[in-house]
Write a structure and sequence with these properties.
Layout (H helix, E strand, L loop, with lengths): L2 H11 L1 E3 H8 L3 H14 L2 E5 L19 H4 E5 L4
Antiparallel strand pairs: 1-3, 2-3
Helix pairs in contact: 2-3
Length: 81
């Protein structure tokens, strides 16, 4: 996997959670976080506050009991960067 694959994925999809990215690229969440931090430092993506997700507001998804912390970490592609 190349670092550019991650940026291309986010550019095409606009946003994704750490959990989704780790699953898509089949890597550990900790490894994905390190790769994402590279793009955050470059200003290509932004880590946004996802505290308004369903679990955080008390409206749990139909297929889970509680979202993991990595589901709350959402990365957004910066169109202007």
């Amino acid at each position: 996997m190349l670092m550019t694959d991650i940026s291309l994925y986010l550019e095409l999809n606009g946003r994704a959670s750490l959990l989704d990215l780790a699953r898509h690229f089949r890597v550990a969440e900790s490894a994905m976080q390190q790769m994402l931090s590279f793009w955050v430092k470059k200003g290509k993506i932004t880590l946004v506050d996802a505290s308004q997700t369903n679990c955080a507001t008390g409206h749990k998804c139909s297929d889970c009991f509680e979202c993991s912390d990595s589901a709350h970490q959402v990365y957004v592609w910066n169109n202007t960067a």
